[in-house]
Amino acid sequence: MPAHSITFYAFLFRSLLRDRQNSLQAIQSYRDRSLRTLLHHARRDVPFQRERLANIDLNQISLGQIPPTTKTAMMESFNQTISRGVVAFDDVLATEDEHRLELPIIHGKYLAVKSSGTSGKPGWMVIGLRDWAILRGATLGRLARNWLTPGRVAMSFVRPLRTATLAAEHSHSMTWQSSRSAEMWAGPFVQVRFFPVVNAVERIVAGLNDYKPEYLHAYPTAAEMLARYRLDGGNFTFEPELLSVGSEALTAMARQAIEQAFPKTRLVDHYGMSECLPLSTECEHGRKHLNTDYAILEAVDADDRPVADGELSDHVLVTNLVNHVQPFIRYRVDDSVRISHKPCPCGSVFPTVEVHSRKGSQIHLRNDQGIWQMLSPPIVVDTMLRTIGVAQFQVIHVLQNELIVKFIPLKEFAIEDVAASIRKSFANVLCRLACGNSVKVTVERVDAFQRTEGGGKLLQTISLVAPPAASRRAA
Asked: What pLDDT does residue 98 have?
C-alpha cells in the first residue's frame, strides 16, 4: 500500500465508529486531549503561536483567553506560522505552476494549498501528508456514514467502489487535491475519477454514463447542472447512490432539483474550508453535525464573544485539531452560523450548525451558440487563483454577457501585469465554456471594495442581471 494509506483508512473507520458508538463525554474528552496536545506543540515549536500562547495556562485551557487571529496576520508572518521552519514561503510559491497538474508536495512531506475562501483574499496553507490523510479519511467517513455499510466495505475487496469528483481542476484546489489523494491512498479498494466542471455538460454526462460512479462529489451548482440537464431530457444512464456537495451554498431550489432528478440518490451537504476540511457533515434528517473531534467551531459576535446557543453569529473562530505543521487556532472566518446542542432525531451526539453568508451570485452567460452557461463562485475563484499578483478581487455581472473584474494588486506586482494575467485566465475559462466570442470582460484596478451590510462580507461574485427562466448548463 502507498504511504499514508493505512492512516487514511484507520481514520475513515475510526470516524465511522466514533460517530456511531461514542458518547458525548468520550468525544469531548478526545477533543480536549487533542486541543491540549496541539497547544503544547504550537507554543513549543511555532513562533507565531508561541507569542499568542505565552501567558496561557495550558493545564486549564480556556479558548477565550487566546486572542483570535486572521488570514492577513498569518500571511504577513507566514514563515513564523510553520512548525520548526520546516517549510518557507519561497518553497510554497515554487509550487505555483498553472500548467502542472500534480499534488504540490514540498520536501516529500508537506502539501501546499491555495485558497481565497469567502474573503476574496488569496491565502496559502501547508499541512503534513499524514495530517492530510487523517483529515481526508475522517471527512470521507462522516460523509459516507450511512452509505459505507459493512456489506459495501466487504464488496470492495471483490470489486472496487467507483467514486468521482466534479469540480475545478487545479493543483492547489483542495477539492482536486482531495480527489487525487484518494486516488493514491484508497486503492485497490476504491476507483477514483475526476471530471473538470468547466467541460461541456454533454461531455461530463457522457463520461459519467460510461463510468457509472456509485459515489459522486460535486459543487452544488455542478450537481444542479446535472439535475436540470436530466430533467430537461438529457441522456442519463446512471444515478449515484451517494451524492455529496460542498465548497458553496446548497440553495433550496438546487436541493429540490437534485432530489427530483435523482430520487434514489442520498444527498449530503458538507461544510468545510481549506483551513479545516471536516467541519461538518449532513445527516439523514438534513442537519449538519459539527465534527468536534477534529475541529472546534466557535460562533461569536462582532467582539469575538460567544453567542448563545441557537443565535446567529457575526463570524466564526476555527481551530483545526489535526494540522500540526501550520496550526490554525481561533482563526477568524467571516461565515455567519447558528450552532445548536439540541438532540437530533438521527441520534448523533454531535451539535448541529446552520451556515449563512457563504454565497456570491450565480452568473448566467449565453455562449457562442446561444446556450445558457452558469459561472459559479467556485469557478470564478479557481480562475482568479490562476492569476498573479492579486491581493483581492470581485467579479460583477453588469449587463448580459458583460463582466467587470475589479482587483487590488499586491504591492510588488505591476498593475498592467496583473491585469493581463486576469484577462488571460478569464479568456481561458470562457473559451472552455464556449463563451469566448460572446462575453466582454473589463478589468479594473480599485483601492477598496464595497462590502455587504450586516456582516461586512465581500461577495466575490455579484450579478446585476436577472437569471433566465431556465438554465440548462452550470459551471
From this structure: 62
Residue range 81-91: mean pLDDT, rounded: 96
How many Å apart are CA 57 and CA 54, to the nearest integer?
9
Cell of 373: 452557461
**Whether residues 333 and 371 fall in one domain:** no
Domain ranges, residue 80: 5-356
Q: What are the phi and psi torsion angles at 331 (to 5°)? A: -95, 125
Which among 356, 374, 392 is the end of a domain? 356
The count of other CB atoms within 10 Å of the CB of residue 438 is 17
Give a yes or no: residue 380 inside a domain.
Answer: yes
Tens digit of each residue's pLDDT (9 = 90 or more) over 277-287: 889 989 989 99
Residues 213 and 145 in one domain: yes
- pTM metric for this prediction: 0.79
Beta strands, E only, 328-401: 331-333, 336-340, 352-356, 363-366, 372-375, 390-399
Q: Is residue 469, in this structure, part of any structural domain at all?
A: no
| Contact assessment for residue 457 and residue 334, using Cβ atoms and an 8 Å cutoff | yes
| 393 part of a folded domain | yes
Same domain? 392 vs 296: no
CA dist., res. 406 & res. 425, Å (int): 14
